Amino acid sequence: METAFQIALIVFSALLALLVLMHKGKGGGLSDMFGGGMQSSVGGSSVAERNLDRITVVVGLVWAGIVVVLGLLMKS
């Protein structure tokens, strides 16, 4: 059981990292250092960006849940 949660943690960690990297830079951060600030910004966020935000939040919550469950399994 513990091994399944460890594998799930690895998968969700990689997925969460990819989702975070897919977000557009909002300006003023590290993304501007590497050329992210050169793109013109469109007023408001698109449907795709909002869906990406929602998916990232859900994957982050699942990741946090897996961390808590793994902590409880390792403790007992």
TrEMBL record:
The chain crosses the membrane at residues 55-74. The keyword DNA-binding does not apply. It is found in: Cell membrane; Membrane. InterPro entries: SecG. Pfam families: SecG (PF03840). One of its GO terms (cellular component) is plasma membrane. The keyword Membrane applies. It is a multi-pass membrane protein. One of its GO terms (biological process) is protein secretion. GO terms for molecular function: protein-transporting ATPase activity. Signal peptide: none annotated. Keywords: Cell membrane, Membrane, Protein transport, Translocation, Transmembrane, Transmembrane helix, Transport. Involved in protein export. Participates in an early event of protein translocation. Belongs to the SecG family. This is Protein-export membrane protein SecG. It comes from Streptomyces triticirhizae. The lineage of its organism: Bacteria, Bacillati, Actinomycetota, Actinomycetes, Kitasatosporales. The gene is secG.
